Amino acid sequence: MSQRELVERAGRGDHDAFAVLLHGSIGRLEAMARLVLRDQDLARDAVQEAFIRAWRDLPGLRDPDRFDAWIHRLTVNACLDAARRRRRRPVEIDLMPVGTASTPDESAVIAQRDELERGFRRLSTEHRAVLVLHYYVGLTMPDLATALGIPLGTAQSRLGRALIALRAAIGADPDAELAPVQGGQPA
């Protein structure tokens, strides 16, 4: 059964179709939310909230083929809501484990990851969301704009500002290129 058919069936109240739709994306959405919120428990809560909103609002989804962008947008919005609610709560960091593959200078990789983590922590939730959607989730700029519900030009400028903020936060040269990210890990 195609995704479009599943979305249409779920929109008519089919719980099984909805479960199939979300089953394949739950891990990816939780990882994205964890990167945006920097808190595993808040990320799970945000994804759960996004799923509740998706179930409630699915009958109103006009284009079933845009389900993926729509669920990303719901998840980002749930993350932004969670971040607003926790403003007074201290941030807890859950560092991703370092890969087991040995590199010529593993200490340099760890130092770079720590520096990036510190810089990422200093960014606003909105900047983290844009960076995560583009570099971690791998959304193209048009898909990023759709996922955030903003014009393409706005998405491009937000990504640019987020990169500038990240470079400033880690003390990098503003003209330096960021390494592309694959699967949530720097390449």
List descriptors.
two-stranded antiparallel sheet; elongated; Arc Repressor Mutant, subunit A; 2% strand; single chain; Rna Polymerase Sigma Factor, Chain: A; 187 residues; mainly alpha
Characterization of the model:
This protein is mainly alpha-helical and 187 residues long. 66% of the residues lie in helices and 2% in strands. The protein has helices at 3-11, 15-23, 26-37, 40-57, 67-85, 106-122, 125-136, 141-148, 152-170, and strands spanning 181-182, 185-186. It has a two-stranded antiparallel ribbon. Helix 4 packs across helix 5 (67-85) and helix 8 (141-148) packs across helix 9. The protein is elongated and about 50 Å long. The model is unreliable at 98-103, 173-177 and 179-187 (pLDDT under 50).
SSE layout and pairing:
Blueprint lengths: L2 H9 L3 H9 L2 H12 L2 H18 L9 H19 L20 H17 L2 H12 L4 H8 L3 H19 L10 E2 L2 E2 L1
Antiparallel strand pairs: 1-2
> Strands of the largest sheet, in order across it?
1-2
Overall geometry:
elongated
Radius of gyration: 18 Å
CATH architectural name of the largest domain: Orthogonal Bundle
Instruction: Write down the domain tally.
Output: 2
What is the CATH topology descriptor of the largest domain? Answer: Rna Polymerase Sigma Factor, Chain: A
Count of helix runs: 9
User: Helix amount, in percent?
Assistant: 55-70%
